[in-house]
Amino acid sequence: MRRYWLIFAQAVTVCLAILFVVTTLRPDLLRVNGPGAVQQAAAAGGRPPAGEVGAVSYADGVAKAAPSVVNVFTTKHVNVPLIPLPDDPVLRQLFGQVPGVSRREASTSLGSGVIVNQDGYVLTNYHVVQAADAIEVALRDGRRDTAKVVGADPDTDLAVLKLEKLRSLPAATLAPDKGLRVGDVVLAIGNPFGVGQTTTQGIVSALGRNGLGLNTYENFIQTDAAINPGNSGGALVDAYGNLVGINTAIYSESGGSMGIGFATPIEIARKVMDDIVKTGSVKRGWLGVEPQDVTPELARAFELSRDTTGVIIAGVMRDGPAARAGLRVGDIVQSVNGKRVTDTTALLSEIAQLPPGQRATLGVLRAGKPAELAVVVGTRPGKPR
After folding, report:
1. Which pTM was predicted?
2. Which of 68, 112, 205, 232 is an active site residue?
3. Which of the listed ranges 175-179, 301-305, 334-338 does the model predict with the highest average pLDDT?
């Protein structure tokens, strides 16, 4: 028995000696899912191994995404008054058209964009290139090229540019739709204040932000990554360099970043981009109605119960899709193709996603009784540019 204890003690001593040597000279051999594994996952565009909190450094993600982010320089001609003009906008417009009162000068502005295709397609904000007479794009490696607007979608403030000459470009890797979560680390890459390409880091503060009065269709990613003037149209990427959004706007009283920035999600940008590249425009479903949210005042006026949800139809366009389907003023739309809608934003978004010409079923409440109406979705009229 004593002999066995001696053998056991010797074996334990040898194992401890080996562990001490390995720990001292090669500690990396003992790491199963250490930082190195996380960095490899980042370089491959994936997520960290199970159990890991996140990447130690975001350098690999930046190196992957940064070459696809470009600076966008625009030039437009504006009328500059030669003499002080009245504050009244009508008089300013009237005097501005009088020969000799103003002169036409070139005005330049800057923004950012993201290369989304090796063949020279660049995604940016519509307000960056709106009314531009000339557009120049500068890549991170110093190359420059002129660009033209392929198409724009003012309803989501997105536009697609096409470079004139440069090809075989470093295109961004688009993240999967709806893969982002509140709390995920994100990086904003752009050209703030014209200082050159800059990367800032933050987290996703909220998803699905709307009601901001920025666009017709709002479904923003909110982030505290610093976004400043010049970042518009730039990339919002995850920690692994995948494009999750297009930086669009900031909330600020001073003009600088206050930790509240908004980006258009990649699922919206992807659809807009594909439609513009294929057809030059974006076609959305349309009913031809004037909807209003159910407020307590309207609920009392229509003698509705407190738990009634939906959207009240306040107006119906003559000969529009809704009018032809029999929708009336005072009807309360509660669902579209079986999916409940609780406010105006939800109704417009659901209809906009439907292809024009497709039949949709509206669940409505009419005079307190539920009913269903079949409507052929029309094409939303485009906004003048």
Report:
1. 0.73
2. 232
3. 334-338
